[in-house]
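User: Please run a holo structure prediction.
Assistant: Happy to. Please share the sequence and the ligand.
User: Here you go; the ligand is flavin-adenine dinucleotide.
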Amino acid sequence: MCTNNIYYPYQMKLTEIRDETHDIRTFKLEHVDPKLKESFTFLAGQFGLYSILGEGEATFCIASAPTKQGYIECSFKKVGKVTTALRSLEVGDLVGFRGPYGNAFPIEQMLRKNILFVGGGIGLAPLRSLIDNVLDRRAEFKAVTILYGARSTADIIYREQLAAWEARSDVRFEKTVDQLRPQDEGKWSGHVGLIPHILSKMSVSAENSVAVVCGPPIMIKFTIAELNRLGFNDSSIITTLENRMKCGFGKCGRCNIGGTYVCKDGPVFSASDLKGLPDSDF
Ligand SMILES: Cc1cc2nc3c(=O)[nH]c(=O)nc-3n(C[C@H](O)[C@H](O)[C@H](O)COP(=O)(O)OP(=O)(O)OC[C@H]3O[C@@H](n4cnc5c(N)ncnc54)[C@H](O)[C@@H]3O)c2cc1C
Ligand code: FES
């Protein structure tokens, strides 16, 4: 095994496949090497590079919680070469994995605070790792509120997980879709409207609170603006970025924005970090 090579991918076995939507799939993966399976650790917010021989690598966050040991999960949307090739894999096949890379959500700074999670679309994947991590340590946090939005009911991911969060008495869970499809009339129990608009009506308090926001850039931008209006200051708003990457650990210069490397300085940033980046649109 060539473990001195920093680009060496470890082999992980695909042990479960779940289709979340027509184009988003979740993999459960376990290290083939039993020692690695035992010793592997990561933090919520970190990512990996997942590869398939002859096709290349793609970057996905680790979507399972660090408190669930022995496996990781990732969820990916079919957009191009590698994600299409990954969809051809079956349970029992091998996937290359490099990581974990990147910084992490500052969970220790969230202790004894109210936590507001705002997730849009597949942006729930990195949030899910942190939400489960927080819920596995529930007593260490104050109120937990989750707002999840998808374009339509057909685009909702992690349905079982959402139902479990919704059923908890120690979590406030709100869901929304941008638009209701005719076939969902009378069946949808959530809100209808864009995330920032629903957030504006939720009467959340910014006091002793941290907001964690993940989703498409446009949703992050307008959600940060709404959170600011509700009284959250930029240092108490945390988000993640998804710039193009190659190496994953600060060597290739593919991911940088000015002097900031998304792969090693991020992918987790506060809104104040984001607003300080060159040509920031936030
Ligand atoms: C830190 C980080 C975490 C990520 N987490 C996830 C995740 O959990 N799930 C997930 O589905 N995706 C995630 N992504 C995006 C994912 O890496 C890309 O969608 C994937 O690499 C595309 O691979 P591909 O070979 O299938 O597509 P390609 O053939 O390389 O590209 C197909 C299309 O997607 C666009 N594209 C490729 N990569 C990106 C990117 N990083 N940002 C925006 N557009 C891109 C290309 O411009 C092209 O239009 C993450 C990216 C980063 C940097
Ligand atoms: S991905 Fe290579 S420097 Fe960030």
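Helices lie at 34-39, 81-86, 124-136, 159-167, 195-200, 217-229, 271-275.
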